[in-house]
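Chapter summary example: a protein plus magnesium ion.
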Amino acid sequence: MDNFYKRLLDNASDLIWVIDMEGKITYINSNIADWGYDKKEAIGKPLLDVLTIKGMGKRSSVPVEFGVSRTFEMQVADKCGDLRRVVVSSSPLQNDDAKIIGEMGILYDVTEAHAMEEKLKHEERLASLGRLGTGIAHEIRNPLSSIKMNLAILVNRLHPTGEDKEHFTIAQDEVINLERIVTEFIDYAKPSPVKLRRQSLKTVIEKTLAVVKTVCAEKEVTITRDFPPVIPMALMDSAKIHQAILNILLNAIQASPDNGVVGIKIRSLSSPTETVAITVADSGRGIDQDDMKFVFDPFFTTKDDGTGMGLSIVQSIMANHNGSVAIESELGKETKVTLTLPTG
Ligand SMILES: Nc1ncnc2c1ncn2[C@@H]1O[C@H](COP(=O)(O)OP(=O)(O)OP(=O)(O)O)[C@@H](O)[C@H]1O
Ligand SMILES: [Mg+2]
């Protein structure tokens, strides 16, 4: 092959190949290295042995017969078995007598674009569920206040005792529980605007630690601190950051066994930008890998008495602060949640 064309093909950003009528590779460009193969190793092998097809997408323009141009999306495994989503276009290759002697193909990796598309779809679904949910939540709020008020009137008028009193107490507690769920949901779906001011992160953290003291005492959980000598000021809405830290501390304490230890660590980072990172780590139950993608979804909970709003609220608070929240976890071993806030 002419050197110029060879270089052109080799430097293309997509994977390009030619196969003979038996499906064996006669040419493949250098991008095959990205798939874990050496060029020499791939040549002569059946294409389908090198790129193992794991699943066909919908966008295929059949018929799948030799000598017909076609484009389709599918999942292909690389040498290590890692799956990638790709779009393949193939067309027949003819010799000078217009006889089909093989096929050439171009493959481009759409894994990232596909992941982004899925994420957007998921967010859209959540947004429409959110609108529906907020509507329902508002509708529930008024009758709920009415039930609460009437229960209070009845308790005052009847002065129930014994079992009757117990029934009233249960009903009142459940109403309070429902109110909390509804308020948390409305607050998540339509959060009050953040009021950002330069404030002391240390003060906020100390306040939050004081709040969780009683919860810790119940389970005899100890909190250890790893703070730098100077904790930077951050641009924040301290009530919201208090809420975010509280939510992750509560999760850590709830996940810990009795007598467990929860660590809170603060670090200043200067790259890529000036930020402060707050990490809460526990050695508790951990998070199942399959559950990981849902933990930030509103109402996702694995707890009997959880509402599943905690982390979704943390995520929305951190996004409003141009910060972030990240979770690392190993099932049955540990969970680390890191919040970052810009300080620069
Ligand atoms: N530190 C942790 N250890 C183990 N699992 C966790 C931890 N933090 C969160 N999770 C998992 O993520 C789920 C969602 O957490 P989130 O805080 O959003 O809701 P919740 O704690 O279940 O309920 P709520 O916070 O509304 O009372 C939890 O039910 C739990 O399965
Ligand atoms: Mg929680």
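Key point: The domain at 3-109 is CATH 3.30.450.20 (Beta-Lactamase).
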